[in-house]
Amino acid sequence: MRQGHLSRIESFRANRGFTFLELLVVITILGIVAFTVSLSATPSEQRLIAHEVDRLNALFRLAHSEAALRGRPLSWEADESGYAFFEGSAATNRALDGSLRRRDWPFAVESVEGPTVVFGLEPLLPPAQFRLVTNRGETVLLVDAFGTVTLVQ
Prior knowledge:
Distance between the termini: 80 Å
Structural class: alpha+beta
Helix content: 40-55%
Number of helices: 3
Radius of gyration: 29 Å
Strand order of the largest sheet: 3-2-1-5
Strand content: 25-35%
Order of helices and strands: HHHEEEEEEEE
Low-confidence stretches: none
């Protein structure tokens, strides 16, 4: 009798499998993990804008140094497709290449309002304000006298 009892327990364990509840819990956990990964993997427009402001800060510092080294003014102009640095102005001179090459916005921009920023030999710039209109709203960028770009919603 003892031997028959063990064989019934072993056969019950061998045929048991997973219950519906256990499978449901595992699928729910996998869904939550997949959702979290997709949120962190897909950058939001706000995160892209903040990253672009950081990039503009670095590029403006570089443009200011380049203008001083070349002894000629450089200008920065933006439109709906992106922005570029030029020797002189966009109307009269060529676009720069390398680190100061033309770049596209990493998000959809419907319109850009703001002046041309000119980096000259003088250490201070006239302050400027740029308004970027995207499909999600409006973003304002402020450029101070030192060329620092600040994001203002």
